[in-house]
Amino acid sequence: MSEIARKTGLSRNTVKKWLKAPAAVEPRYERPAKEGKLSAFEATLVAALKTDAHRARDQRRTARALFVQIQAQGYRGGYSAVTDFIRAWRQDSGKDTTKAFVPLSFELGEAFQFDWSEEGIVVGGVYHQAQVAHLKLCASRAFWLVAYPSQGHEMLFDAHTRSFAALGGVARRGIYDNMKTAVDKVKKGKGRVVNARFAAMCSHYLFDADFCNVASGWEKGVVEKNVQDSRRRVWLEARERKFTSFAELNAWLAERCKAVWADTPHPEHRELSIADVLQAEREHLMGMPA
């Protein structure tokens, strides 16, 4: 073997491989795999597939749509390479989209719920019964908290604006109790005389407002639970801190909301965080008006 290697200039391992191979089989060199035309676009496809895995079947992008998407980004390969990659990803990752999606109680982008709570806290060395706005997307459960020294229309409008901007858009429907800043008069059944300023806000953001029946807070249970959860997760910690202003308090609340999204499993998709489902829901929200 050493003599053959010396005369041929081949390595001993190569000679050994040749000698062990069946006579009818011609030894072949293994060439390193070359990067295909699709390689640079695989990350884009995977991101799209992961997002679509949490959508209803009729809302997922087809292989053809993904092909067109990466073509616009510069892909010059064939369609079959894309379909082969999608099929292999689903099989290898165990995330076949026929099994990954579990219907939510609310559709993505369908609704948000809004409520106020009153929280005792020291701001600027003064004890306040802060008025805290809670706005929560019903599907993803992502929520936003904003604190004010008092409650009125200006605070109501500001809380919606801040919350929509932070959550990434506006759901198609808002669910409220019969708060005075929204309802001037409660009639029998579902009858309401809606406050004109509140109605103008709804028209500005293009969402419909629904109101709970009197003494039926269970109809707005997602936010009611949020009030309890946020007190436990956020306000116990907030009371141990010192804030010089409501602006500083709200900046801290913003960071805590985002942290809770990332750390909390979604109640109906335990393998996903609230932040994961919010990412999918954002594609179904209406944009902010100019």
Question: What is the number of domains?
Answer: 3
Order of helices and strands: HHHHHHEEEHEEEHEHHH
Choose one word for the global shape. Answer: elongated
Strand residue content: 15-25%
Number of helices: 11
Radius of gyration, in angstroms, nearest whole number: 29 Å
Low-confidence stretches: 95-104, 215-219
CATH level 4 superfamily of the largest domain: Ribonuclease H-like superfamily/Ribonuclease H
Q: What is the assembly state of the chains in this entry?
A: single chain
Q: Tell how many strands the DSSP assignment holds.
A: 7
Tell me the CATH architecture of the largest domain. Answer: 2-Layer Sandwich
Draw up the topology in text.
Layout: H1 2-8, H2 12-20, H3 42-52, H4 63-72, H5 79-93, H6 97-100, E1 111-123, E2 126-137, E3 143-148, H7 153-167, E4 173-176, E5 183-186, E6 192-194, H8 196-205, E7 208-211, H9 221-238, H10 246-263, H11 274-281
Parallel strand pairs: 1-4, 4-7
Antiparallel strand pairs: 1-2, 2-3, 5-6
Helix pairs in contact: 4-5
